Amino acid sequence: MEIQEVAIDIHVPSPENADELQIFMKKKLDEVPGEPFKPRPVTIFRLPTWLHEINKDLCGPKVVSIGPYHHGKECLQAMQKHKWSMLRDFLARDENSGFEMYLREMRLLEAQARECYSETVDMGSDDFVMMLLLDGCFILELLLKLQTEEWDLCSVDWVCGDIISDLCMLENQMPFFVIHKLFAIQGKCDQNCEGLCPLFELISVKIWIADTFKFSAPQISCSEIHHLLHLYYKGVLPDRQFDREQSDLVTGKSYHWRLQIFQWSKFFSKSSNPVVESATSRDDESTSSEDIKRINIPCVTELHEAGVKFRRKIQPRDMFDISFQHGTMEMPFLGIDDMEKILLWNMVAFEQSQPYEFESERILSSYLALMDSLINTEKDAAILGRSGIFENYLHNDEQAANFFNQFSKIFLINYSDHYFYGLYKDIKRYSESACNKSRAQLKHDYFSNPWSSISVVAASILLILTFIQTYYSAAK
Fold it and tell me: Which of 421, 190, 446, 145 has the alpha carbon at shortest distance from 296?
């Protein structure tokens, strides 16, 4: 057999082409933000494309762009032009500082602001600085106009509502230190605030209007806030230690250590260490990862059939103050409309973007995982509605159920550190008891609709009459 040689044409670039490639790659390397081996302080993230495809109305702004991710979009150009009048009005409030000072301060913050975005911002220096000044002054002037009730295009109800929704989106943020710097130049707060920043109060009073989320300005330094969405997130989450151990629930921290003990015990399984054996022999507090992943609870309809009662908690500490005792679940009020949908979606997206530390629990992700388990269909939402717990302002209960059902599919939940893990165990234990399972089965089979209930009642009456007739016949 003859072996033919095949000539492979390998293109060797000329020295001129090699130089061009070298120059091109060197330019790209120089454009990479940050320094080698130094973590970037990224706080504003771009959501994956597939998340936009699932629910684009909750990810992208409808009226106004803030920051570089949606800058220049055709559908947002009307408000982009209005930003110039907002800039003029904001500068007119300051008789001491000239326009040059504002522009100079923004140039000083350019490099720091660029590093806050997860994607490289493909904007020239002048364009980026102009964007910081326009967007930052727009936000502040909007707040000030709302405070003094000055009429403006942004004061129109539907426009204002859309703007507030846009300001809640994770991709539509700018670093908080930029807004704070502009606010401080006008002397409305100190350059380095100690204690409660006056900007917190202005934002909390004039923008964050939602019945479900009880916002209170966080008692932390303004330098710790990443952006407006982060401020709202900190103001909504409970400002308290996770005290589940005191309420006979399992804390994430202690559970984490029991999980480690379980893993260590498998490693040292050949040894007969009595301490390890006792730590892993408690069935009630099993720490197997597989057991954790299997933890789930029935939906509201199934729990209702098992005898669980649902009540609205009158004075909850916060929206996460949910309890289950003696077959009764008490929950704070939850109302869902288009605004709350955007807030929930973007707050949990922000929470999911943060580095996970075992001391800090993803409480909002845990809350939405719980609601996803409870509300599977419109019937579940209707039962919570009749109990005064849930108010649906969407078109129908099916839309509300679909909204909650999507979270478990797109956001990650660490079940080894679930905030409501103890609640899950209590509900599961109650619903799986023999008595409650029999009651649920009976209710599902014979009392699920009026006709089956009538049939059961009629059959019972017929049985009683038959028994009476038999009794009297035997007595004769």
Answer: 421
Helices and strands (H and E) in the chain: how many: 21, 5
Task: In whole angstroms, give the CA distance from residue 134 to residue 86.
Answer: 8
Task: Report yes or no: 397 and 381 within 8 Å, Cβ to Cβ.
Answer: yes
Three-point CA angle 208, 209, 210, nearest 5°: 110
Give the number of other Cβ atoms within 10 Å of residue 96's Cβ. 8
Separation CA 260–CA 135 (nearest Å): 48
On whether the CB atoms of residues 430 and 422 are closer than 8 A, the answer is: no
**pLDDT for the residue numbered 352:** 87
In 3D, which of 437, 225, 231, 430 has the Cα closest to residue 346? 231
Residues contacting residue 215 through CB under 8 Å, at least 6 positions apart: 204, 208, 232, 235, 236
Q: How far is CA 318 from CA 3, 236, 375, in A?
A: 80, 8, 20
**pLDDT reading at 71 higher than 80:** yes
Residues 408, 56: Cα–Cα separation, whole Å: 18
**Tens digits of per-residue pLDDT, 38-58?**
777 889 999 988 888 888 889
Instruction: Give tens-digit pLDDT for 239-269.
Output: 654 444 433 333 333 333 333 333 333 333 3
Strands 390-392 and 323-325: unpaired
Torsion of CA 121, 124, 129, 134, to 10 degrees: -80
Report d(CA 297, CA 154) in Å as an integer: 45
- Helix, strand, or coil (residue 324): strand
Angle at 447 (CA atoms; ends 443, 451), nearest 5 degrees: 165
What is the three-class DSSP state of 106? Answer: helix
Assigned token pair, 393: 């302002």
- Residues 136 and 27: beta-carbon distance below 8 Å: no
Question: Tell me, what's the pLDDT at 107?
Answer: 97
